Q: What sequence folds into this?
């Protein structure tokens, strides 16, 4: 007996959802595209910021007996400045950052919500990426750097050609995870009027006078986006771990004994 | 004139004085084996030679020029003094071939094709010519060490430094690496080798240097050194090793 109203309301929820899907299709697709774009650009630019800041933080934390006094002081200052960036952006909600930065820079930059959203999510992601990159660098064996130095590479060359590629590979799962987090958390950018998925749900809700339909639809859309992304990232990770598997198996035994070419 | 000459070298880690007024030299074409008990400072001395450690005092002359004070670029100097590590330190993000190419292209600024040819030449030389496109992680220890030797040779090094190149290897792989080193010695390459392989030292080295607690206690022509050690500590060490 009690089941009847529940089933009825479920049926009507499905109806409401279907109505949202059919009537507001284009709004929803536009929102989904904006969500993916802002998450993707934010992750990529964030990674670039993170690579630079993370490498700076790693280098400025490393002590070298050859360092002059000035170098030591520069390292301390750089570490302090990058720490401020990382701590502040990781320690406050992105929604607050978005409201504050968007409105405080609106006068001087005259930026659109779209552009502001991309900038804010990039800067925010950069703070997380910096720490991901730094621990990625720390996870690379110290011998890799010594090997590079021993053939005459500069610190920069060793970092660029040997260490960072391995750091990025080691950190790939965390980097991918930032992308998934950005797909979801970009929803807070609706507060500055950026028309991503959550923003569209809110405006649809305003015209149909119903909360459940729009947010069920949008929830499903978010899930499909994150689920697909996670699978794709998994496949890429798998591929990365199985590169260079191209040597014929027969070589392995035959040539470890034979020494040719002298 | 010695190719590398080290005078009054001092090096401490904190309060631990690892090298005390060390004097050492290696001539062109000479093979010197450095032996001594654990912690005596062999690795530190070797790492000072190519400046992976910066000495606190003393001088390192390369062809008569003090590299600690001269205008010679440290990285240029390092290309001439190659290093082979106990733990191989091959670049894991590159194929065997690229391990031997990258330094030539990025440091020596060689043309890619020339570098490629040169890398293949040296990989063939160490018997790794069939593994050009393998990743280091797929190789056995002996194979990795041979690639590491090829990587150093490809830089046209004039001296190779070996820090216990076979200590991390399974016993059955030790010889494939020693054989390569023996061939290099016969070709006249200058080498400084830290090793616990006494038979190899006896056979291949021109000179053996025994280090004890940060000083060079005794050195001599290889056969003479092993047959007639003078110092008590040397006799003790050789006795221990033989057991
Ligand atoms: N980077 C470092 N910081 C602090 N102490 C160090 C460092 N490198 C070496 N030492 C110390 O210096 C001493 C000499 O070390 P070194 O590695 O030169 O000895 P070794 O003769 O190569 O010994 P082994 O046969 O064990 O390799 C040791 O007591 C070691 O603990
Ligand atoms: Mg050692």
A:
């Amino acid at each position: 007996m009690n089941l009847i109203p529940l089933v009825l309301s479920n049926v009507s929820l499905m109806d409401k959802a279907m109505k949202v899907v059919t009537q507001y299709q284009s709004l929803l697709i536009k929102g989904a595209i904006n969500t993916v774009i802002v998450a993707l650009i934010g992750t990529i630019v964030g990674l670039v910021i993170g690579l630079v800041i993370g490498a700076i933080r790693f280098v400025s934390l490393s002590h070298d007996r050859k360092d002059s006094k000035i170098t030591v002081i520069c390292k301390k200052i750089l570490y302090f400045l990058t720490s401020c960036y990382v701590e502040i952006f990781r320690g406050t909600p992105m929604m607050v950052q978005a409201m504050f930065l968007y409105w405080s820079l609106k006068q001087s930059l005259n930026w659109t919500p779209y552009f502001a959203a991309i900038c804010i999510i990039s800067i925010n992601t950069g703070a997380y990426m910096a720490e991901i990159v730094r621990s990625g660098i720390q996870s690379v064996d110290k011998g890799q750097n010594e090997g590079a130095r021993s053939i005459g590479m500069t610190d920069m060359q060793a970092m660029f050609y040997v260490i960072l590629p391995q750091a990025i590979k080691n950190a790939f799962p965390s980097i991918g995870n930032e992308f998934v987090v950005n797909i979801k958390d970009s929803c807070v950018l609706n507060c500055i009027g950026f028309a991503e998925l959550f923003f569209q749900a809110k405006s649809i809700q305003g015209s149909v006078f119903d909360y459940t339909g729009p947010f069920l639809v949008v929830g499903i859309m978010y899930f499909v986006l994150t689920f697909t992304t996670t699978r794709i990232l998994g496949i890429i990770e798998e591929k990365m771990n199985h590169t260079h598997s191209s040597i014929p198996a027969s070589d392995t035994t035959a040539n470890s004994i034979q020494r040719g070419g002298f | 004139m010695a190719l590398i000459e080290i005078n009054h070298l001092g090096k401490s880690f904190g309060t631990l004085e690892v090298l005390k007024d060390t004097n050492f030299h290696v001539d062109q074409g000479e093979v010197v084996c450095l032996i001594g008990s654990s912690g005596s400072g062999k690795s530190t001395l070797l790492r000072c030679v190519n400046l992976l450690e910066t000495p606190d005092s003393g001088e390192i002359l390369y062809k008569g020029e003090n590299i600690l004070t001269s205008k010679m670029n440290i990285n240029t100097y390092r290309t001439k003094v190659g290093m082979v590590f106990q733990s191989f330190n091959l670049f894991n993000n590159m194929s065997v071939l690229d391990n031997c190419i990258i330094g030539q292209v990025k440091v020596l600024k060689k043309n890619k094709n020339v570098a490629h040819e040169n890398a293949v030449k040296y990989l063939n030389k160490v018997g790794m010519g069939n593994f050009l496109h393998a990743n280091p992680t797929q190789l056995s220890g002996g194979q990795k060490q041979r690639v590491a030797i090829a990587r150093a040779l490809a830089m046209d090094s004039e001296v190779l430094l070996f820090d216990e190149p076979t200590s991390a290897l399974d016993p059955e792989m030790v010889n494939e690496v020693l054989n390569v080193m023996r061939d290099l010695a016969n070709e006249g390459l200058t080498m400084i080798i830290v090793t616990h392989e006494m038979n190899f030292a006896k056979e291949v080295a021109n000179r053996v240097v025994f280090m004890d607690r940060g000083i060079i206690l005794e050195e001599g022509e290889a056969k003479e050194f092993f047959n007639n050690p003078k110092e008590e500590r040397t006799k003790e060490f050789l006795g221990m090793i033989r057991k």
Q: What stands out?
A: Residues 33-186 of chain A form a domain with the MetI-like fold fold (CATH 1.10.3720.10). Residues B 13, 16, 18, 36, 38-44 surround adenosine-5'-triphosphate (ligand 1) (CB under 6 Å). The two ends of chain A are 91 Å apart (CA to CA).
